[in-house]
Amino acid sequence: MDRLSNADKKDNLTRRIIETKGIVQGVGFRPFVFQIAKRYGLHGWVLNTSGGVLIEVEGAEESLHAFLDDLTMQLPPLAKIDTISVMEAEAAGYRDFKIRQSQPQPGEYVSISPDIGTCTDCQHELMDSGDHRYGYPFINCTNCGPRFSIITDIPYDRPYTSMQPFQMCDRCSQEYADPNDRRFHAQPNACAQCGPRLAFMGGVPLQAINGDAIKLTVQALQEGKIVAVKGLGGFHLACSATDETTVAELRRRKHRYGKAMAVMMKDLEQVAGYCKLSAAEEKLLVSPRRPIVVLHQRQGTKIAYSVTFGLPTLGVILPYTPLHFLLLDSYKKPLIMTSGNIS
Predict the structure, then answer these.
(1) What is residue 73's three-state secondary structure?
(2) 150 with 117, same domain?
(3) Dihedral, CA atoms, 327, 333, 336, 339, nearest 10 degrees?
(4) In this predicted structure, what is the pLDDT of residue 233?
(5) What is the pTM of this model?
């Protein structure tokens, strides 16, 4: 059989113009679209707009149907499509599939994902002494890390986030551009060579103190001090959850005299030593949203009385940023982790 001409090939193809709205930016949606287009041998492009994600994809009809099924049925865990429109069009003759530069659109709006707790893969890299991101307190990937807290404008792209001043090193750039990498188009991607860094500040007047910021923070906590920890969306005030004098002083400074305070614990094993845990409560604690879960305390624990004023329950949260993981891994004991607001 003679090889089909380019015109004949184009006649055998059809195109779909697809617009999706919902939580489709900052959740690995474009890399997901790229991967399923490659899976079915389809050509075209995908890009962010100020209103959602726009896709043009063309190929054989059967492959397009499979693409649309996967697009709606196998979404990334953090993505959510609220509306989708699909239009048919004649093939445009695309030769490959690309992630194109985003298109700002005046007057449009798109939902941005909230910040997502550090995923299991990043947790492993964070604690792996052989990994080049070992101990890096701003580790993230397409599946986790800051989103809403760092955005300055839409669409969600690095130039419109607080990561804009940090130019990726060659290694991070390669990860960002590799479709098979977990950090493919991860906007906050960074490492110790090219990304933000920690600093410990103390004294009067407040000034940077030389030394390992994590070790200095843990030392301050062990000395019964209250530490302001700058997180993704603001400041936490942290102190020992087992030191009655320190917890009472924190309450005095915050003018918080009646409400119970939440406690951050290292992991589920530590939580089980202080509280009774059901399977459902465990699942909530380790979920990507990392909520505060109210648990029944075990009797005779060393949690300071002023944390709950004798209530039988305790609000518990697990670490959800790399900095939290590093602090709790070094400090070992439960920490009060409350907002920096006066309350």
Answers:
(1) helix
(2) yes
(3) 10
(4) 75
(5) 0.85
**What is the rounded CA–CA span in Å between residue 314 and residue 304?**
11
3-state secondary structure of 110: coil
Structural domain span for residue 70: 6-99
**Is 50 exceeded by the pLDDT of residue 3?**
no
Q: 293-302: long-range contacts (C-beta < 8 A, 24 or more apart)? A: 293/317, 295/271, 298/273, 298/274, 301/273, 301/274, 302/242
Cα–Cα distances (Å) from 62 to 73, 195, 248, 297, 317, in that order, read 17, 44, 67, 57, 47
292 within some domain: yes
CA atoms in the 13 A half-sphere facing the CB of 169? 9
Q: Report the CATH number at residue 188.
A: 3.90.870.30
Same domain, 190 and 209: no
Sign of CA dihedral 242, 244, 249, 255: positive
Q: Hey, which bits of the chain come out as E strands?
A: 14-23, 43-49, 52-59, 80-90, 97-99, 201-202, 207-208, 227-230, 235-240, 263-264, 275-276, 293-297, 313-317, 335-339
Residues 148-176: pLDDT tens digits?
999 998 888 899 999 999 999 999 999 99
How far is C-alpha 201 from the chain's CA centre? Answer: 26
Residues 218 and 193 in one domain: no
